[in-house]
UniProtKB/TrEMBL annotation:
Domain CN hydrolase, first and last residues per copy: 1-239
GO MF annotation: an example: hydrolase activity
CDD domains: nitrilase_5
Listed Pfam families: CN_hydrolase
InterPro entries with a match to the protein in the record: C-N_Hydrolase, C-N_Hydrolase_sf, UPF0012_CS
Gene3D superfamilies linked: Carbon-nitrogen hydrolase
Highest taxon in the source lineage: Bacteria
UniProt family annotation: Belongs to the carbon-nitrogen hydrolase superfamily. NIT1/NIT2 family.
Protein name stated in the entry: Hydrolase
Native organism taxonomy: Bacteria, Bacillati, Actinomycetota, Actinomycetes, Kitasatosporales
Organism: Streptomyces davaonensis (strain DSM 101723 / JCM 4913 / KCC S-0913 / 768)
Keyword line: Hydrolase
């Protein structure tokens, strides 16, 4: 399976519309990949709290339209990262969109753990409730978003629902880059699953981004890691390694709780 993680730059020097057009073009350039991944809140920036309200879109808004078309033009499964979603009957949500190679929306995931403690996303957005998995030929994706990475019980739930490849779009800051790498490897090892974690480059709202998108295999080996700048991280992996790792080192079977 070939996956491309698009570590796009998110900064104030580019308009949301221009970045949307550029992201769609980058997705189209990945034709031939099986799965393409974009980061969290790449239209606004994950820390650009003041823009969440002004740039929020309905689920089937401009980013949905652009990404559905890009997925079908490229013929790829697309985890299009997340958007600030405006629910007509409720609050904003940090919502990930996943498209099939024909451009159909196959899943939407509203981020469960909101970041910011008593400010930012934690107060501006509502919390999702539902775990989301997506069946692809050869593997089942389990999806989570950025701060979710710190909550291992969410990933256990995804594994119980059949997840073998954990896809985590993020807008992780440089300040806590060591946590990002460590937690990505931990989630891979403890769940004996692939982890595909895609961050952003650049600086927005004064927060330098870590970049360093990473792909980890079920044994915890780092298969590929990006630098800090905009980059397409492409990796080939064998989804069958999840089953062999779980068979040869059956720690998941020893769960007591
Ligand atoms: N956008 C986020 O969820 C940021 C998470 C983060 O900075 C952290 O967990 O540290």
């Amino acid at each position: 399976m070939r996956a491309s993680l698009i570590q796009i730059t998110v900064d104030e020097g580019e308009s949301v519309e221009s970045r949307r057009v550029r992201a769609a073009s980058l997705v189209r350039q990945q034709a031939g990949a099986d799965l393409v991944v974009l980061p969290e809140l790449w239209t606004t920036g994950a820390f650009a709290y003041e823009e969440f309200g002004t740039e929020a879109e309905p689920l089937e808004g401009p980013t949905y339209e652009a990404m559905a078309k890009a997925a079908s033009d490229a013929g790829v499964w697309l985890h299009a990262g997340s958007i600030p979603e405006r629910d007509p009957d409720g609050p904003l949500y940090n919502t990930s969109l996943i498209f099939s190679p024909s451009g159909e929306l196959v899943a939407a995931y509203r981020k469960i753990h909101r970041f910011g403690f008593d400010k930012g996303e934690a107060v501006l957005m509502g919390a999702g409730r539902d775990l989301v998995t997506v069946r692809l030929p050869g593997t089942t994706l389990g999806v989570a978003t950025c701060y979710d990475l710190r909550f291992p019980e969410l990933f256990r739930g995804l594994v119980d629902a059949g997840a073998e490849t954990l896809v985590i779009p993020a807008g992780w800051p440089e300040r806590r880059r060591a946590h990002w790498t460590l937690l990505a490897q931990a989630r891979a090892v403890e769940n004996q699953a692939f982890v595909l974690a895609c961050g952003t480059a650049g600086t927005h709202a004064g927060v330098p981004q870590a970049g360093h998108s990473i792909v980890v295999d079920p044994w915890g080996e780092v298969l590929a890691e990006a630098g800090a700048d905009e980059e397409i991280l492409t990796v080939e992996f064998d989804p069958g390694k999840v089953a062999t790792t779980r068979e040869q080192f059956p720690a998941l079977k020893d769960r007591v709780l």
